[in-house]
Amino acid sequence: MRSSVRRSVPAALVLTLGLVASASGAAPTSYVAPSGSDTAACTQAAPCKTFDRAYRAASAGSEVEIAGGTYGGQDFNGPPAKATSERIVFRPAAGATVKIGYLGVSNTDNVEIRGMETDGWGVTDGSTNVILRDVTIFDERNGGYFGGAHDTQIIGGEIGRIDPGDGIHFNNAGGNTNTNITIDGLYMHDLTRNLDPSYHTDCMQTGDVAGLLIRNARFVNCGTQGIFLNPYNGGVTKDITIDNVWFGPAQLGYNSLYVGGATNVTVRNNSFTQSMYVSATAVNVRMISNIFAAMDAYTCQSNASNSAVYDYNMSQNACSGATHHTVNAGLSSQFVSATSSPSWALNLRLKAGAAAIDKGSPTGSTTTDYDGHARPAGLAPDAGADEYGSTGGSTPPPPTNVAPDTSISAGPTGSTTATTASFSFSASDDSTPAGSLTYECSLDGGAWSGCSSAKAYSNLTVGSHSFSVRATDTDGATDATPATRSWTITSSGSATTLFGNENVESLADRLIDGQAEAWPFTAATAGTAATVSLYVDPSSTASGAELGIYADNAGVPGTILGQGTLTSPTAGWNTAVVPGFSVTAGSQYWIAIFGTGSGELRFRTHPTGGDCLARLSATNTLSSLPGSWSGTGTASECPVSAYVTAGSGSPPPADTVAPDTSISSAPSGSTTSTSASFSFTGSDNVTAAGSLTFECQLDTGAWGGCTSPKAYSGLGVGAHTFRVRAKDSAGNVDTSPATASWTTASPPPPADTTAPDTTITSAPATPSSATSATFAFSGSDNVTPAGSLTFECSLDLAAWAACASPKNYSGLAVGNHNVRVRAKDAAGNVDASAASFSWTIVAQDTTAPDTTITSGPDGLSLSTTASFTFTGSDNVTASDALTFACSWTAGRG
């Protein structure tokens, strides 16, 4: 099916349930890329290919970075449980766009998917603690599905143009009840059943759920019903709360909210532009502080009768059985915008002086409104989803800042053959001087980007173009009605347009694989068809397309008259030659398109339907345009930017010039940082800089899609090289990539904070009469070699002074002495427990001792042996410390 660039009013404040938060930075990032392999390690250099493989490789609480690109279906199917319940977060790389097929989360816990477009999703089979944040489903047959999900949140995001299935469907079979589901800030819109009118197409259908919170959301242009609260096939629908929701109409005229056999339903502070209904089978329904802008008296009375509480609501008619009810016939006019065509135009915020101000329940209302603004506690809040401000204590919004007014003073108009254009513009503002205003420009409905007068463009294609510019003042107010200038570049040949639409429309549309689409046009001029042209959107990735022209058959395409082929279509007008056939002025013809080869064909259509009705082929299994059209399926985007010409007009020459790439910011030289970030730009002869794509390569790794800035982390020590190359819309790739080289150096060693250790290896005896002393000492340290240590000494607690081993002291006095030595290393660390030695110096002794013989032979003796005992005494030395010397003399007698 088709998708488009969408506009929306400011999104509601998104609140997150306090389930289990992901850890920040606690685990390494894993990587997935379209070119990856599930046999790889899921690293940045070797990414894996599927989400399931990345989940299995990732740690609890970590992130998985998804490279930009288109992926097939992604299924989580019962991977092993992780160590903790921290969610693994899957997110696109910075600036990347990720499109995946069907997303299936089955029997899987603790996972979060962020910021991707998918063909649909399902959370089933007991999956728990799952978050889908800012996930988009657009132009698909079915939306989201819950089948046995628990503690799951849908935060932000968009589900739009589903045909013919439901936006979100809860399983209808009992025994697998969904529990504790939150839908917060979702925008759901434009559900149809054109492909199968028998479908009961609802924005949301609850077959089996216990515990459902819907808040701060928008449901606009649903199919049959809006939200359909009713159990099926043995299921339950109970414990439901709906707060601060904008309810637009259901397209078939049924109810925007239907409360059937549901139990314990609370509906608070919601704004309805179409009726809702409470069935008599519902149990314990509480309706509080709602605005019903299109509800008749009978329905209001029935709803009040079937509700347990019906208090402080508002409707256009009196309501028997309601309490504190406010009647106002002009409720729709109190909203900023009650229109739902297109769906993004619905804005149910209150105008100044709205009747709903101060009419909500003082005790039963929500504490905050759709935008997260606080409601006045204990006072009179406003009814409905918006809290504008009340005399009961809430603060009115600040005065509106007047936006500047922008005007174009010079630029091309009408028709020209020039493929260049320059625009001069200015603006005025109520407070900001003209010289301080800033500007943004857009060419042909492309992205807004900063610019200044005069803004120049070159290499423009043949066809219709439009230029828009808007000013912004220093208070942040932007001109909501940009100045616009349109003109047409014609071929220098003599081609004549026979029929079609030469305007470059604003909606980026697409087809699902295998399906064709045709648009009707009435020929303004007769002639022989020669070419058919199609405006291809810059986001297109298709490798080919077929363009066909069909005769009309009673208001539908008939037999094909001619067709041409586009090979490698590029952004802008693409022209194919068709076999000549006659065109009759005033007759209706059909221009049909069909994407071929790989990629997705995206083109431009008018977003609001115009005055014609396109036709889809009955099947989506085509391999080429059919010879005769079959199928009358309708689509509202009309007309397409395509036209048929006669004469000598021919396609523009193919673009074969490659773009040029440059790096504006990168590391250089040597650094100890293990991360690096690169900023880069490109320029091309045809493709605008903002439409170029890039591929990056680190060292010898594979090339992969990237956006500026590109960051790497966890880099190893050594030399590194980063390369980046631009690719233009024609597929030309820069053959001389921009390069940056640098070296990641080893980080310095950690600071030395450990002090050395000191040892005294030699010291004097104690006591000693010597008045000099010599000490030897050494030290050891964890870093500084022993020979590089320095020392400080202190004698008898004197100040520390530098010293070296051996250290000598002389002239010391008699008495007790102490020496301390401490080592100091190269980092300045000093031994805090210095080595210490104490000793005593005594006075010198000059008095000799006295000796006495206490026993021995005396006189004459015939014995030839003799024994003597003796003692000594001294003025200093103790008797037992004295030593003796003996001598004897032999005589004759």
What does this entry look like structurally?
With 893 residues, the protein is an all-beta fold. It has 2 helices and 73 strands. The strands form 15 sheets. It has a 12-stranded parallel β-sheet with strand order 1-2-5-8-11-14-17-20-23-26-29-31, with helices on one face. The longest helix is centred in the middle third of the chain and has 9 residues, at 297-305. The protein is elongated. The relative contact order is 0.06. The model is unreliable at 1-26, 390-400 and 648-652 (pLDDT under 50).
What is the element layout, followed by pairings?
Blueprint: E1 30-32, H1 51-57, E2 63-66, E3 69-70, E4 74-77, E5 88-92, E6 98-100, E7 103-106, E8 109-114, E9 117-118, E10 121-124, E11 128-133, E12 136-138, E13 144-147, E14 150-155, E15 158-160, E16 168-170, E17 178-184, E18 187-189, E19 202-206, E20 209-215, E21 218-220, E22 225-229, E23 237-243, E24 246-247, E25 257-259, E26 263-268, E27 271-272, E28 277-278, E29 283-288, E30 291-292, H2 297-305, E31 309-311, E32 314-315, E33 326-327, E34 335-337, E35 347-350, E36 405-410, E37 414-416, E38 421-428, E39 438-443, E40 449-451, E41 455-457, E42 463-472, E43 483-489, E44 496-500, E45 507-510, E46 517-522, E47 527-536, E48 544-553, E49 556-567, E50 572-577, E51 582-583, E52 588-596, E53 602-605, E54 614-616, E55 633-635, E56 642-646, E57 660-665, E58 670-671, E59 676-683, E60 693-698, E61 704-706, E62 710-712, E63 718-727, E64 738-744, E65 757-762, E66 773-780, E67 790-795, E68 801-803, E69 807-809, E70 815-824, E71 835-841, E72 850-855, E73 869-873
